[in-house]
Give the backbone structure.
Amino acid sequence: MIKPVGLGPADAAVFRPRLDSERAVVLANGINFRYGDLDPYGMAALAIDEVVRQVTAVGGDLGRLAILDNFCWGDPARIEVLGSLVRASVGCYDAAKAYGTPFISGKDSLNNEYRLGEKTIQIPGTLLISGISLMEEAAKAVSMDAKKPGNLLYMAGLTRKELGGSAYYAQQGVSGGQVPQVDFQNGPSMLRVVSQAIREGLAASAHDCSEGGLGVAAAEMAFAGSLGLTLNLKSVPGTETVPGTGVPDVLREDFILFSESASRILLEVAPEKAPLLEKKLAGFPLQKIGAFEAGGKFQVLGLDGKPVVETTVAKLREAWEAPFKGW
Amino acid sequence: MVRVAVLKAPGSNCDQETLHAFRLAGAEPDLVWVHELREKSKTLDAYQILALPGGFSYGDDLGAGKLLASELLHRLGDSLRKFLERETLVIGICNGFQMLVKAGILPGGKPAAPEATLTWNDSGKFEDRWVYLSGEFNVCVWTQGMDETFELPVAHAEGKFLPKDPSVLEHMQGFGQIVFRYTDPDGKTAGYPWNPSGSAQGIAGVCDPSGRVFGLMPHPERHVAATQHPRWTREGRSGEGAGLQIFRNGVNWAAKHR
């Protein structure tokens, strides 16, 4: 019903294993080894958070979501390798409890190291979380491609200065930084409501913000639907201080665009359904941050309202397809 | 109830979807293993329709569909001839189409020296995606009343229809045996990527002169529900998929010609 890669990168696969039933199975995967280099606990929490976001985005049932872990690590006889493995396991425990997602199975592959003379190469400790959920009616699945000019783009969830382990820092050659923190209170409670809203048909499309953050997710929605988009960065809901520190959180435009803060979902909403969505998500961070339009113009307006990105969805699609060109 | 034999060999892998499509079309399909026919624990006598599903029968050793085609001819030849002499229908999808052509059953309708083959795609690779198809005047009982242009998925590496010589195509065209051609979204015959294999004249499906034996590279059994279409969520598609009509046509025809 929904392929992993269609007009754009889907959040989760939706399929009907029994041809004579309308029920569908949802399969989602959360993974990002870059977080693990900085914070294995954070990596585990984010991988589970990503799975929950993905299942939410396609309209799966969060109440019937089970997860699996796949650990790929180095030699745990090394104290720092064992330490990161323990931290990742604790992250799995805390996040799974917070989201109410039971681990039903898993697999580990340790000692992934190779010695060349005196040099030992070890893989980055990497955790893959797979999620399996159900959908009563496959025909209610929601895809990530933007559907209609005039529809509004909403961001649910807070954007913070959390660029550690991000695709943006990797591209810019920046190391270190704060790995996104999963809010175990507000994350699950907001995503549950977002999930309800999507399952009630309030979103024409939905997409989770993960690798590449808002900028990449919004671009994917636009080019998958061949629709233009104007995005207002000053409308993006954020925090004014770094959580728990009281330190002012100075957001730069590029940080807002590419921060990978957890528990965020983009929702495309028809104008007539917007009031209902806002009512449903009252009390949670939700803002209208843009609108889709006919034509292929993709622009991002900065904090002063002036364009900071001006491109076309054709160029964005070309960039997305480039690695597999000619296949 | 129209009875359908969906013939399975080791390596066939579209049999369940094909059975499901025939059930949706109102028939009573059975999965029949090729060895059950060989050992005579089942016969084709009870069936009105023989369906050869897609997959990689016998690993496609010696060429796609080649081994099962030989088995159909040489080990099951008598029962197959007997089946074809009755007022029966045959559909060969993808690997099944390759078998029908390599056994020489298509385009002539009876086992004969092959007049065509299905060979490697010009692209040299497995092409797995949705294509646009258009029908034209043809005698095929399986495709009557279908939309002029529709979409189905293809998934094959050896789908290029290649006749022995141009007269074969002229002959087929004259008898209304060219059923579908690959087209662009506007319904015009076009080259790669619209024609995924480089098939002669964009041929995607052919039938015999009687219209009862039908072979096609695309997979109608993979589009019996609208939600299988790649753009169903953005085009608001619901209900049936374009492929179901093919199975229904076959079943309705068989019900009338018992």
About this structure: The radius of gyration of chain B is 17 Å. Chain B has one domain: 3-256.
